[in-house]
Automatic annotation (TrEMBL), chain A:
Keyword annotations from UniProtKB, A to Z: Membrane, Phosphoprotein, Transmembrane, Transmembrane helix
Taxonomic superkingdom: Bacteria
TM spans (from-to): 257-275
Catalytic activity: ATP + protein L-histidine = ADP + protein N-phospho-L-histidine
GO molecular function annotations of the record: phosphorelay sensor kinase activity
InterPro entries: DAHL, HATPase_C_sf, HATPase_dom, His_kinase_dom, HisK_dim/P_dom, HisK_dim/P_sf, Sig_transdc_His_kin-like_C
Enzyme's top EC category: transferase
Protein name, entry field: histidine kinase
Residue ranges annotated for the Histidine kinase domain, each copy included: 336-571
CDD domains: HisKA (cd00082)
From TrEMBL, chain B:
Keywords on record: Phosphoprotein
Cross-referenced Pfam families: Response_reg (PF00072)
InterPro entries: Bact_response_regulator (IPR050595), CheY-like_superfamily (IPR011006), Sig_transdc_resp-reg_receiver (IPR001789)
Protein name stated in the entry: Response regulator receiver domain-containing protein
Biological-process GO terms, alphabetical: phosphorelay signal transduction system
Stored Gene3D superfamilies: 3.40.50.2300
Residues with PTM 4-aspartylphosphate: D59
TM region(s), chain numbering: none
PANTHER family attached to this UniProt entry: STRESS RESPONSE REGULATOR PROTEIN 1, TWO-COMPONENT RESPONSE REGULATOR-RELATED
Domain Response regulatory: 11-125, 152-266
Length: 592, 309
């Protein structure tokens, strides 16, 4: 997630940098057309200015012609000025300094323009006053009172020449010469009366021309003093410098852009290569996966077959184990029953033998009595005294009888216990079942464990009696084994919620919670290795479950354990009957 | 009893938790012996502390004190008395314990036959008539073991583990000979001085019971220890009744137990060699097995061997 965010940010940053660089290199004032237009404007302005300055000088030299050149120059200057004005904003965009300079320049052009106007009028004035002077002089020169070649004639001519020179020159240095000539003329006028008026008039016209010429010269000076050219040069220089700088900068940016673009390209190339490679790997993994998939299917099939076989084996083994547990329980039971039978059989047989052994002695006694031989009688009585022998015979035969009865009862109990010939749904009195089981395991409990019976009247319960007997035997056996030494097993039966309840409580060692949680699991045992397969209670559990009953256990370490078996009083339907033929068969084989 | 018993009559003690058994036994033996009965193990222990007996016969399965406990107590309290187990319950562990701890003379199953029982009791009384000689105390220091070391141990077992375990337990204290057939065992017995034999119940599929009976008969000083991985009640009863085996060990045997057994068996062999009459106390009912031994020619070989020794 974080990685993705970082990726997006870096891509965004790269694009922003790229845009900035492009904008920097493409900034408006730096377009070539704009640049050229500005330079042209400046050049035209310069040309116009120089033209104006030239026209100022030329106008002086062409006093006779009209001052049309000056007006043209002023118009051109104005055109160039307005062209510059249109570019002023562009200069401002380049630099504020440049804009200021341009503004100053425009002001000066305006000033020059007005000065040119003034100058034009002054030149016109000078031209008319000069024309007037020349008329008076020509009239004087041809005046009859002034002969050609006279000194005065020469002086007048000279004056005309000097004044013309003065009027044409912007910086005349012949003012003293003119003044000297004027002084001479005024002196001449005093002596020549006929020429006096003309000479005085010439003198006044000369002064007017001189005055007009001086004013025009002053204006021309002012025009020439305007620093338009310098400022134009400065503006141009600064603009060009600035432009060059900007150009360098843009070039730098361009270089950076090129490098940056190159770098980006490299990065994209790398990413693309990586992507390509990843795709390649992905393709390969995909192929491998597919191969693996195919193999896996085969393996799974193989494993499934193995597992199925293992499961079958396990089931077989479990069945064998259940069988061997049954056999072990049976073996234990048979050993116990054998002892139970062998004991009465032992004394019954011994007693019968003893009685039979006594028979010859008794016969001898009878024979002796019949013979009437007292010595023989005495002998026979010694070997078999009837007063002792008869009660003993009675006792021995009575014991033998008792022993045989015991054996008969035991065998009946075994037969009851196995119930091989009964069905699953037989109505069975659980109290009888408990008593039968007690009889079977009596040899374990006799003399050591006290049995307390608290039986309620139980209605017959539908069940497989042989299996229920096995349950009771198992629970009683466990109870007996839990009691080390002397103790009590209390058995209580009752009816509760349509269930027959059998409670078997012992005063044995008890179990902890962990053991209690596992006792109904197959193969769980607390007995030493080889003493039990751990199937006993799991079989009990299964039998009770098959009967749709329940089994519970309560136990406290050191106090004892209570097992509570509940069986339904009514048959749960036909479900049980299907087992009727299958289940008891197992016992039939082992007991038969 | 109207006729006062002469003081020389042998005294028998019968122990059982079933009074009718005791009455029956009393009826059989009261004519010939001085019969005492104890109903239950606790009463038996009480009686054993007070009176002396030639023969003690106990049931195994009793609610208060089991028969093995009674016989073990009898062995300590009255080593002179011959001990027997009379029971209808063939619990293997009880039988092995009665052999090893009770050192019983016979194991009698219920139901019995009066005549056989009479014979057995008579044999026991004969065995009890031989004065009991206690085993010599074990030598205090290792240097005195030298005398015992001469007596070798014969292992008759196909399983090499028995020899390996025995060698490991004994180190170089004693010679250990190994035979994997009865033939080889006989040869070794003829060539070496052997006092103790450790044997499986069968080698090469052949039961060793006839051999043991024959050895009991003709080489009574030889002490037999059975070592087996397949003990069952029937074999064990046969071993004690027909072979009077000294001990019956179940494989695998702990090293310490093996060593202890060899030592006590050697001391017993030494005792039997020095007091040949003591063999009468451990005489076995060899007749059934000897017939087998005779048929197989084993007896002849052993008789020959006996001359050798």
């Amino acid at each position: 997630m974080l990685q993705r965010l970082l990726m997006a940010i870096s891509i965004g940053a790269a694009i922003v940098v790229l845009v900035v660089l492009v904008v920097r290199t493409q900034s408006e004032p730096q377009t070539v057309q704009g640049h050229l237009a500005r330079l042209t404007t400046l050049a035209q302005l310069r040309v116009a200015d120089e033209n104006a300055t030239a026209q100022v000088t030329r106008a002086r030299l062409r006093l006779s012609t009209e001052a049309k050149g000056l007006a043209d120059a002023a118009r051109r200057l104005e055109d160039a000025g307005s062209a510059l004005a249109t570019h002023r904003d562009e200069f401002r965009m380049v630099s504020r300094d440049l804009a200021g300079t341009a503004a100053g320049l425009l002001q000066q052009i305006d000033e020059k323009k007005s000065l040119l106007g003034t100058y034009e009028r002054q030149i016109e004035q000078l031209a008319s006053s000069f024309e007037q002077l020349r008329g008076q002089a020509e009239a004087l020169l041809v005046h009859p009172a002034l002969p050609a070649g006279s000194a005065l004639h020469t002086a007048v001519r000279r004056l005309i020449e000097e004044v013309t020179l003065y009027a044409l020159q912007s910086n005349p240095d012949n003012q003293q010469t003119i003044e000297a000539l004027l002084n001479r003329l005024s002196a001449e006028a005093a002596s020549a009366r006929a020429l006096r008026g003309a000479l005085l008039g010439l003198g006044r016209a000369t002064t007017t021309v001189l005055g007009d010429s001086d004013r025009a010269s002053a204006t021309a000076d002012r025009i020439s003093q305007l620093p338009i050219t310098a400022e134009l040069d400065q503006l141009r220089h600064r603009y060009v410098t600035h432009y060059a700088k900007a150009e360098t900068e843009i070039a730098r940016y361009r270089t950076v852009l090129v490098i940056y673009a190159g770098a980006l390209l490299a990065v994209f190339g790398f990413v693309g290569w990586r992507l390509r490679r990843s795709y390649g790997e992905l393709d390969r993994s995909h192929d491998a996966l597919q191969t693996l998939n195919t193999k896996l299917e085969a393996t799974v099939e193989e494993r499934t077959a193995e597992l199925r076989k293992a499961f079958d084996d396990l089931r077989l083994q479990q069945a064998q184990l259940v069988q061997s547990e049954k056999m072990a329980a049976l073996g234990q039971m048979v050993a116990g029953v054998a002892h139970e039978i062998n004991t009465p059989l032992g004394y019954a047989r011994g007693n019968v033998e003893t009685v039979r052994e006594a028979v010859p002695l008794i016969r001898e006694l009878f024979d002796a009595q019949a013979s009437g031989d007292t010595a023989r009688q005495e002998q026979a009585r010694r070997s078999w005294p009837p007063e002792e022998g008869l009660p003993e015979l009675e006792m021995l035969l009575g014991d033998a009888e008792y022993g045989l009865e015991q054996i008969g009862e035991l065998v009946r109990g075994l037969k009851d216990f196995s119930r091989v010939d009964r069905s699953f749904n037989e109505m069975f009195d659980l109290n009888d079942g408990i008593d039968t089981a007690l009889k079977i395991c009596q040899n374990q409990l006799k003399g050591r464990v006290e049995i307390q019976r608290d039986y309620a009247e139980l209605p017959p319960v539908p069940c497989a009696p042989s299996q229920i007997n096995q349950v009771f035997l198992n629970l009683l056996n466990n109870a007996g084994q839990a009691i080390d030494g002397a103790g009590t097993i209390a058995i209580r039966t009752r009816v509760e919620d349509q269930m027959a309840v059998v409670e078997i409580r012992d005063t044995g060692c008890g179990m902890d919670a962990d053991t209690q949680a596992h006792i109904f699991e197959p193969f769980f045992t607390t007995k030493p290795v080889g003493k039990g397969t751990g199937l006993g209670l799991s079989i009990v559990f299964r039998i009770i479950e098959d009967h749709r009953g329940s089994i519970e256990v309560d136990s406290t370490i050191g106090e004892g354990t209570t097992f509570r078996v509940k069986l339904p009083l009514r048959s749960a339907g036909t479900g049980g009957t299907s087992n009727a033929t299958a289940r008891p068969e197992n016992l039939q084989e082992t007991v038969a | 009893m109207s006729t006062a018993p002469p003081p020389s009559r042998p005294r028998l003690l019968f122990v059982d938790d079933e009074s009718r058994i005791l009455l029956s036994l009393r009826a059989i033996f009261r004519a010939d012996y001085d019969v005492t009965t104890a109903e239950g193990g606790a009463k038996a222990l009480e009686v054993l502390r007070q009176e002396r007996f030639e023969v003690v016969v106990s049931d195994q399965r009793m609610p208060d004190v089991p028969g093995v406990e009674v016989l073990r107590a009898a062995r300590e309290l009255q080593p002179q008395a011959i001990r027997m187990l009379l029971t209808g319950y063939s619990d293997l562990n009880a039988i092995i314990a009665s052999i090893n701890e009770g050192e019983i003379f016979r194991f009698i199953p219920k139901p019995w036959t009066n005549s056989e029982l009479r014979e057995t009791i008579a044999a026991a009384v004969r065995a009890a008539s031989v004065e009991h000689v206690a085993l010599p105390e074990p030598p205090p220091g290792p240097q005195q073991n030298a005398a015992y070391n001469e007596v070798g141990v014969l292992v008759l077992d196909e399983d090499p583990q028995t020899t390996i375990a025995l060698r490991a337990a004994l180190g170089s204290e004693r010679e250990v000979y190994t035979a994997d057939s009865i033939e080889a065992a006989l040869t070794l017995l003829g060539e070496h001085r052997i006092g103790v034999i450790f044997t499986e119940l069968a080698v090469v599929g052949q039961s060793v019971a006839p051999l043991l009976s024959a050895l009991r008969q003709h080489h009574p000083a030889l002490v037999v220890v059975a070592v087996t991985s397949q003990a069952d009640a029937g074999h064990s009863i046969s071993l004690i009744n027909h072979g009077q085996v000294f001990r019956l060990l179940q494989k695998p045997v702990a090293t310490t137990l093996l060593r202890g057994t060899v030592n006590i068996a050697s001391r017993r062999h030494e005792m039997l060699r020095q007091h040949p009459e003591q063999a009468q106390r451990v005489v076995a009912d060899t007749a059934p097995m000897l017939q087998v031994a005779e048929r197989s020619g084993l007896l002849g070989r052993i008789r020959g061997l006996l001359r050798w020794i």
